[in-house]
């Protein structure tokens, strides 16, 4: 799978058109402006709250996935790295709940996440995890843009930098386990 082969990649394309471009030559409706400006508070707050709920909804599936990945791990080092990532993710869950409660005054509603689908192999699981971390960074930046409190900004920076570090660790495990070579050999044999 190539760098651009997954659905979520959008290199710095926010479809943002600054308000001063709203001239007769390029008219924007109010709805277009609301949908495209991810940087303007408070318009972006509801979207951020939805993304927080989305992040919270995957908790059960994530726990099962991490246990599966740990059980498939090829070495004790792999198990320790994945366990550390899992522990960070559990901390993120608590932080997202805190932010949601601070912003709304309510506990986030419990939501059903997706059912766990077992990857074809350990390498496929590492690939899924790596792409998941990249996707999380993209979503979490949008949450960060809606934060006004210094505490919430700091929490989001902590979470985002953890996700970037997790991606680096998964990339290391992917490479260490020869996953790229395995995929290449399967492609050459087909």
The arrangement of helices and strands along the chain is: HHHHHHH
Average pLDDT, to the nearest integer?
81
Q: Tell me the major beta sheet.
A: none
Determine the N-to-C terminus distance.
Answer: 15 Å
- In quaternary terms, these chains amount to single chain
**Structural class by helix and strand composition:** mainly alpha
Which regions have little confidence, pLDDT < 50, spanning 5+ residues? 1-30
Shape: elongated
How many strands?
0
Rg over alpha carbons: 19 Å
Helix content: 55-70%
Strand fraction: under 5%
Count helical runs. 7
Explain briefly what this protein structure is.
The protein is an all-alpha fold and about 190 residues long.
Secondary structure layout:
Elements: H1 30-36, H2 45-57, H3 59-72, H4 76-104, H5 122-146, H6 150-176, H7 179-189
């Amino acid at each position: 799978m190539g760098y651009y082969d997954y659905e979520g990649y959008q290199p710095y394309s926010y479809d943002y058109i600054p308000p001063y471009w709203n001239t007769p030559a390029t008219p924007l409706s109010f709805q277009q402006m609301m949908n495209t400006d991810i940087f303007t508070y408070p318009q972006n707050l509801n979207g951020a709250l939805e993304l927080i709920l989305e992040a919270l909804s995957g908790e059960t599936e994530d726990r099962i996935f991490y246990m599966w990945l740990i059980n498939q791990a090829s070495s004790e080092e792999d198990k320790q790295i994945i366990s550390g990532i899992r522990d960070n993710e559990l901390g993120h869950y608590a932080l997202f709940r805190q932010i949601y409660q601070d912003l709304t005054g309510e506990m986030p509603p419990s939501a059903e996440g997706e059912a766990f689908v077992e990857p074809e192999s350990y390498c496929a699981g590492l690939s899924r995890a790596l792409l998941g971390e990249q996707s999380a960074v993209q979503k979490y930046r949008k949450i960060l843009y809606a934060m006004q409190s210094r505490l919430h900004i700091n929490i989001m920076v902590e979470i985002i930098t953890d996700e970037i570090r997790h991606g680096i660790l998964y990339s290391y495990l992917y490479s260490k386990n020869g996953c790229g070579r395995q995929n290449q050999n399967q492609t050459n044999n087909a």
